[in-house]
Amino acid sequence: MTNTTSITYREKLLIYLKDYIDCKEGVFFPKEVTQKGIANGLDMSRTHVSRVVQGLVDEGLLKEHLANVKDSERKLKTYTLTVKGIRAAEGLISHLEDTKINVVKDGENRVLSITDIKDESNGKIGLLKAIDLMESSKGILDLDALGPEDPIKMLEEGPEVESLYGRGQLLGKIDDWFRSEVPTMVLFGGRGAGTSSIARRFLDSVKDRHLLWVRTKDRYREDIMGRLKDFIENIDCCEDGDLLELLREQRALVVFDDYHNVKDDLVDMMSGLVDRLRNDDNLKIIVTAREGTPVYERFYHMEHIDKGKINELKIDTLGEEEAEKILGGPLDPEALKRIMLMTKGSPLLLNLLKEEDIEGMNEACPLTKGQIYLLMYLKDQKAEG
């Protein structure tokens, strides 16, 4: 049996671009063949994509264009396969489509080729998706547990995250939880530590689940239950019945954000929810919370952690290296030390400082106006040389 997990990003990129061989210069190119589009399509970082495409261009397998792109106001770099690249992609596809994979279908263990899997899934699982699923599985592809083809994403209540520095290890820990049998993850940290941004960035990596973001601050249970019902209705499944069971059936991932100073009826709702979750639950829940949440607001106890129903992950503030990246460093060492002392490495404050958002900094921290103007001065002190 061929090991699909040995497929390189170089090979994946060739296969990916095979679907776009009809792109021609002089017309609008689809955004999927830009560096950002390739990164989204293959779940790669933009930096990684840049390195891989440059290597393929140097090998004569790709051609780089500066082209008009749909929904873009300016020309962007785009990439298409050369004749040599098309031959290479076709050779890979021909080899991989006959690859045999252990699968579970209708409760039975079977061995199918990727071509057979495409047929069994009514075309929902193509070559690249089969490879991705195998890479994230434990060697057996469970076709019975696959998520929706076009998942619903109600994320408008979440933050917009443009950049996230120094959080790769934390995102890896969240991903480990996501692949485990523990149903709930609680991310907690001080004000401005970035728990919400980290949770939102993690959702970008989740491709096969219905996703819901629920802001909890200053909301009553009835309002939040209404949002959960709207979510179920948007999934277009039967909205009658127990909400938890419906979310479980749909393999949803729900984020309850900013759990701090919440209403009493919400504490009761969350406690009841956690008590009913199972260790092998199809429903996954992330809660972002403030460090030092009062006892009367806590919706879980040590026994829930001991029983494997909840994982906790503390989100610390940023270090000097990450702060410099946000502020466009390198900065003068003494200026950087004073910035870290005054902001305590808060991602929120550092980003507000970067944007020179005086009003936002006033609202976010107890600093005086004089201290804020000092911070703005310090961030402009660049390192010599």
Written account of the structure:
With 385 residues, the protein is α/β, with parallel strands linked by helices. It folds into four domains: 4-95, Winged helix-like DNA-binding domain superfamily/Winged helix DNA-binding domain (Arc Repressor Mutant, subunit A, Orthogonal Bundle); 98-145, no CATH class; 153-314, P-loop containing nucleotide triphosphate hydrolases (Rossmann fold), CATH 3.40.50.300; 320-379, no CATH class. It is built from 17 helices and eleven strands. β9, α11 (264-276) and β10 (284-290) form a beta-alpha-beta unit. The protein is globular and about 65 Å long.
Q: What's the CATH C level of the largest domain?
A: Alpha Beta
Q: What distance separates the N and C termini?
A: 56 Å
Strand order of the largest sheet: 6-8-9-10-7-11
Query: How many distinct beta strands?
Result: 11
CATH superfamily of the largest domain: P-loop containing nucleotide triphosphate hydrolases
| Percentage of residues in DSSP E strands | 15-25%
- Label the overall shape: globular
| Tally of discrete structural domains | 4
Element order: H for helix, E for strand: HHHEEHEEHHEEHEHEHHEHEHEHHHHH
What CATH calls the topology of the largest domain is Rossmann fold
Low-confidence stretches: none
Summarize this, please?
The protein has four domains: 4-95, Winged helix-like DNA-binding domain superfamily/Winged helix DNA-binding domain (Arc Repressor Mutant, subunit A), CATH 1.10.10; 98-145, no CATH class; 153-314, P-loop containing nucleotide triphosphate hydrolases (Rossmann fold), CATH 3.40.50; 320-379, no CATH class. It contains 17 helices and eleven strands.
